[in-house]
Amino acid sequence: MLKKQPEIRDTVHNFIAFDPSEQKVIDSQPFQRLRNIHQLALSYLVYPGASHRRFEHSLGVMELVGRIYDTVTRLDKLTDEIRDVVPQKDSLEDQVSRSLLRLAALCHDLGHLPFSHAAEDELLPEGYDHERMTYEILRCEEMRALWRLMPHKPDPEDIAKIALGPRKLEKLGGDLTFSPWEAILAEMLVGDSFGADRIDYLLRDSIHTGVAYGRFDHHRLIQTLRILPAATTEAGGEQNEAKREPQLGVERGGIESAEGLWLARYFMFSQVYFHPTRLIYDLHLKDFLAAWLEGGQFPVEVNGHLALTDAEVTSAMRSAAKDPGAPGNDSARRILERDHFRVVYQRRPEDSSFEVNAIYRAAEEAFGGKNVRYGGSPKRGDADFPVLDRDGSSIPAISLSSVLANLPVSRDEYVFAPAEQREEIEQWIETERKQIIESAYEAQAAEEDMETDQEGEGT
Q1: CA gap 110, 135 in Å, rounded
Q2: Whole-prediction pTM value?
Q3: Which of 118, 138, 397, 425 fits a 20 to 30 Å CA distance from 27?
Q4: Angle between helices 310-322 and 329-336 (to 10 degrees)
């Protein structure tokens, strides 16, 4: 009697099946740790349902990337120009590629810190981020032992290449090179346009926050995905044949589902990721961690990293909140008692990001750095992917879609202050706003003039 393939029920994808090699990763300590890393940091204090973890997200990414692979490698989906790049169906290389891709999907978030992105940049040594930690974990002895037990005995470097992608590895200073096929595999997983990572987190975060704007027809999107020659155009509008590296794109019939993904991304940033209360909780958490962690930074040694989860940080916050003399007491208390800073200024339609930053800096100088905080930043993605037109040509998406050509920029930027000083600081900003902005532009112009003079002297 054949043994049934194990599977897990999932909020987004109903059932997720996995093979013995994948189960070894799922059962490993580094992966099980993700059960205790919130996907959206402290967002559950704003959206009560947003208590999902990196664990289920990583399973969902594995499920999605397998579907993407199976779709784009179908023989009827391959053009003559692309066929030589893709391994022959059902060959050993095809089987190994699919296995590596799904394993990389499971592992792509292993390096996340407690509460995910909330306090990453400032709390790691220079040169480290969660991608660097993922790279180190993939090569640690516990994971190497797992790779040796698998039928194809995957090289952790090959898994890292797919899990992080060319840009991230280059940022880490790695000297690994990517074949066109390896670059495509990485794009299926972490690509900016149609990576399974992005598709899953938008759908999952939307469901758990109750924000319906993040949902789109991902079934239709995946069905219409293709590996296509990159679509580039010259000034005269003629297609430039000099650069034809393959990348993920869509058939003409999938352009609307691609628009849905990009609009969902915009709406989720506006409604969830840059929600002001979520942003200020991230800042309070960052302040607590900077005070509580030894040396103000997370450990980067693999065992030290794996020993820290949201559970340890939450426990430390509870203790610190009760002890006025404890490091990070004020920040911990504000989180646990919901006494967070309030918005005293929100970017206006006529504001530039430079002007909001000038207002923040002026308020910080007037009222002290501990009493004024800034959160948010302009966020926009460029929908740069090819579309397979009906005549067989590969053309840029923005030439077909006014939606993609004119994607809005998230303009969510805020200045925060303690509730007890909110009215005072709001009134001060309103009174001083015009003068602050004028002075900031004058200072910028003076600085540019000085740089010009120095360049002139240098020549």
Answers
A1: 9
A2: 0.93
A3: 118
A4: 100
Q: How far apart are the first and last CA of the chain?
A: 82
Q: How many CB atoms lie within 10 A of CB 322?
A: 12
8 Å CB contact between 11 and 284: no
Domain boundaries, the chain: 8-210
pLDDT at 181 over 90: yes
* pLDDT at residue 242 greater than cutoff 80: no
Tokens of 401: 């879609």
The string of DSSP letters for 147-175 reads: HHHSTT---HHHHHHHHHHHHHHHHTT--
189 and 196 in contact (C-beta within 8 Å)? yes
E strand spans, 118-215: none
Q: How far is CA 40 from CA 12, 72, 208, 214, 284, in A?
A: 16, 31, 10, 14, 15
Q: Whole-angstrom Cα distance, residue 57 to residue 204?
A: 7
Angle at 188 between CA 187 and CA 192, to 5 degrees: 50
Give all strands (DSSP E) within 299-454, no chain letters: 342-346, 373-376, 386-388, 394-396, 413-417
Q: What is the pLDDT of residues 352-376, one digit of tens each?
A: 999 999 999 999 999 999 999 999 8
Residue spans of beta strands (DSSP E) within 100-245: 225-229
Q: Are the C-beta atoms of residues 168 and 12 closer than 8 Å to each other? A: no
Alpha-carbon distance 216 to 370, whole Å? 41
d(CA 291, CA 297): 9
Task: Dig out the tokens for 307 from the structure.
Answer: 């020993």
DSSP 426-445: HHHHHHHHHHHHHHHHHHHH
Please give the Cα distance from 20 to 151 (Å, whole number). 10
**What tokens does 19 get?**
């093979």
Q: What is the mean pLDDT of residues 35-59?
A: 97
